[in-house]
Design brief:
The complex is a heterodimer of chains A (283) and B (382).
Chain A: H1 33-46, E1 54-58, H2 66-69, E2 73-76, H3 82-92, E3 97-103, H4 104-110, H5 112-121, E4 126-131, H6 166-173, E5 177-182, H7 186-198, E6 203-208, H8 224-234, E7 235-237, E8 256-263, H9 270-278
Parallel strand pairs in A: 1-2, 1-3, 3-4, 4-6, 5-6, 7-8
Antiparallel strand pairs in A: 5-8
Helix pairs in contact in A: 1-7, 4-5, 5-6
Chain B: E1 8-13, H1 14-24, E2 29-32, H2 39-51, E3 55-58, H3 62-74, E4 79-83, H4 85-101, E5 105-111, H5 128-133, E6 142-144, H6 149-166, E7 169-175, H7 176-180, E8 182-187, E9 230-232, H8 246-261, H9 264-267, E10 270-273, E11 280-285, H10 288-301, E12 306-311, E13 313-315, H11 319-328, E14 331-335, H12 343-349, E15 355-359, H13 369-381
Parallel strand pairs in B: 2-3, 2-4, 4-5, 5-7, 6-7, 11-12, 11-14, 14-15
Antiparallel strand pairs in B: 1-8, 6-13, 10-12
Helix pairs in contact in B: 1-2, 1-6, 3-4, 10-13
Classes of the chains: A alpha/beta (283), B alpha/beta (382).
């Protein structure tokens, strides 16, 4: 019988962006959150901004735990409030590059008021919303992005509500960079985060992620790989996507528009606008 | 940008005096949401902060305001918000976060009549218990109760100092009467004031811990210093990492509670007048104490041996001071503009032989001096 030798690798180049002393993480096998963390780490390293100038703010939930695994200044706040917290941090400390990483329950549902107002202000932060279509950590209840008719632990007969189409909402509210990817699109997520760092204003990136133990098990995606296969076969690049189209349905008969939906350098950001008003007498 | 202060004598509104006190204390960030009768604080902050190089932001609600000031303070900027009862109800969630993360912030509550929307334009002192117990879990609150426009200024500086010193949220409990009252104010030079800044670790320490349990109040690394801190509302270990366990909870809560318990004498401030020979004391705070003082003086003219015990800090509760008073007087009248809140800790801590009498008010106005005098006379003769 051959003995299986452990594979010993050098440290991964992005390890220094992780709090390796906190691993293993709490996320389930098949979850897409590790990919988002990896993409963020890659973007931080490529950004040219010193690591100590990056700060991450998270809320509550599975994605809310992201801040706890990233080796930057990181704040794990209350449910739905990371954007408000991040707004305070950024406005008080404009020299920092502030990123919010949280979930759909946190940002689109309980924190819905904060995300639309942050977009309206065009405040200079990046928001990465990992959309797993349900409340994963609390056991798979319906959220504001749960597709119509989907089964969750609180919609046993099917969801009779309709979800938010977040890119459309963000466009209407005033965000100046809007993208949507899936957990398969690591390179694209990384590029979008880098563009968000450069965008003067409010950037919104939605990352659709498998959640086999929460959303998946009740909606024919029993393993993470099943939902990833759906992402692969149903997503199509729609840069000029009509944002009024409905939110992701996760339905086998419907496609999944992804891409960079909106980038507008023309609208003045919060900090510049504030500076302009405060210094209008100076020439 | 240069820092502009308005020094010297003023005839100023209480709410505005709070703003001037805050700026003197080093406040450079304010997030708030309009609410009667606290709005003049936000209004003045919106034009005063740019004059001292700070930032003002009006948030979408009080939940966001509270979150924003905690965020700003983690960036090392002294921060404040101001509200009234309904807004405080929304802030309670993140007041717990500030306590747990140990982030210094100041919350001003210009109390108005409740419950619910109550009486937006009329006064009350009915948020005394909410200030202390409103957020969930076992936590502590430091609450100052000014009673004059000058104290609105002075106590705001004290509030910032306490929040920075103890790394904790601190509340100022004003009310509609004090907030909208215009009176004398003296603004001294900054050099004449004691201003405390939080302890920050030196750069590049190898063994820095955000929540070092070997220290009662560990220094606070701020964002961007390179310490790559982690702060969470979850129960955490010395490093700030989540540790949801019985052992970690007990260890953390023990230190958090000790921060206050070991500093009670440094935090608590009370004032006594006419109590040397008093048989009756009237315990009160804030705007109500103005009426009480008037009544006590009138009673003294009639040779009634009555004194005034004024809480300058309501929380932590001055347990020893009340016990001491209750051993010297036979009766304590608790005069407050609510239906009997502060009387409970007074009863709990007073000597059993001392009679504790409630003088409540449903709100909308403070007691008239005559009403208090009538109660004093009644108790003096019974």
């Amino acid at each position: 019988m051959t003995k299986i030798k452990p594979i010993i690798t050098e440290r991964h180049p992005r390890d220094k962006l992780l709090r390796t002393d906190r691993l293993p993480h709490i996320w389930c096998p098949g979850c897409g959150l590790g990919k988002v963390l990896g993409a963020y780490g890659e973007a931080v390293l490529k950004s040219g901004i010193p690591v100590e100038k990056h700060a991450v703010v998270s809320g509550i939930g599975c994605t809310g735990r992201s801040a706890g695994y990233l080796n930057v200044d990181s704040y794990h706040t209350t449910h739905g409030r990371p954007i408000a917290f991040a707004t305070g941090l950024k406005v008080a400390r404009p020299d920092l590059e502030v990123t919010v990483i949280s979930g759909d329950g946190d940002l689109a549902t309980i924190g819905g008021n904060h995300i639309i107002h942050a977009a309206r202000r065009n405040v200079n932060i990046t928001v990465i919303m990992v959309n797993n279509f349900n409340y994963g950590m609390t056991g798979g209840q319906a959220s504001a992005t749960t597709p119509h008719n989907a089964r969750t632990t609180t919609t046993r007969y099917g969801n009779y509500e309709y979800p938010f189409n977040m890119p459309f909402l963000m466009r209407a509210a005033g965000a100046t960079y809007i993208a949507r990817w899936t957990a398969l699109h690591i390179k694209q997520i990384t590029d979008s985060i880098l563009k968000s760092f450069e965008n003067k204003g409010f950037s919104f990136i939605e990352v659709m992620s498998p959640c086999p133990k929460g959303f998946g098990k009740k909606n024919k995606f029993r393993e993470g790989i099943h939902q990833l296969r759906y992402f692969e076969s149903h997503s199509y690049l729609a840069d000029e996507h009509d944002l009024t189209e409905h939110a992701p349905s996760m339905h086998p008969d419907e496609d999944l528009p992804i891409g960079e939906f909106f980038a507008d350098g023309g609208r003045i950001d919060f900090l510049s606008s504030q500076w302009k008003v405060f210094h209008k007498d100076e020439k | 940008m240069s820092e502009k202060y308005y020094l010297g004598k003023h005839f100023m509104m209480g709410n505005h005096a709070i703003v001037e006190g805050a700026l003197m204390a080093g406040c450079r960030f304010f997030a708030g949401y309009p609410i009667t009768p606290a709005s003049p604080i936000a209004e003045r902050m919106s034009w005063r902060l740019p004059e001292v190089g700070g930032a003002y932001i009006q948030m979408e609600d009080e939940i966001a305001s509270m979150a924003a000031i905690i965020g700003a303070s983690t960036g090392g900027v002294k921060s404040m918000t101001a509200t009234s009862g309904p807004g405080l109800s929304l802030m309670l969630e993140n007041i717990g976060l500030a306590y747990m993360m140990e982030v210094p912030v100041v919350i001003v509550n210009i109390m108005r009549g409740g419950p619910s929307t109550g009486m937006p334009t009329l006064t009350s002192q009915a948020d005394v218990m909410q200030a202390r117990w409103g957020s969930h879990g076992d936590y502590d609150m430091i609450a100052y109760a000014p009673s004059t426009v000058q104290e609105m200024f002075d106590f705001t500086i004290k509030a910032f100092n306490a929040s920075e010193k103890y790394r904790t949220p601190v509340m100022i409990l004003g009310d509609q009467v004090l907030g909208l009252m215009t009176s004398d104010l003296y603004v001294p030079h900054k050099e004449e004031l004691e201003v405390i800044d939080r302890k920050i670790p030196e750069d590049g320490l190898e063994d820095y811990l955000m929540y070092d349990s070997k220290e009662l109040i560990p220094p606070m690394a701020i964002a961007g210093m390179g310490y790559k801190v982690h702060m969470t509302g979850l129960t955490h270990n010395d490093k700030g990492y989540p540790d949801v366990s019985v052992v970690a909870q007990e260890k953390l809560m023990k230190r958090l509670k000790a921060k206050f318990k070991q500093n009670l004498s440094n935090i608590i401030e009370v004032e006594e007048r006419y109590t040397e020979d008093a048989e009756i004391a009237v315990a009160c705070f804030g705007s109500e104490s103005r009426s009480v003082l008037n009544a006590v003086k009138k009673a003294r003219e009639e040779n009634i041996r009555v004194g005034i015990f004024r809480f300058k800090t309501i929380w932590p509760f001055p347990e020893n001071e009340i016990l001491d008073l209750s051993k010297r007087v036979s009766k304590i009248i608790v005069a407050e503009v609510n239906l009997g809140q502060l009387i409970h800790p007074v009863k709990e801590n007073a000597d059993p032989d001392c009679e504790i009498i409630s003088l409540p008010h449903a709100g909308g106005a403070i007691h008239k001096p005559e009403e208090i005098l009538a109660m004093i006379k009644k108790e003096a003769t019974s």
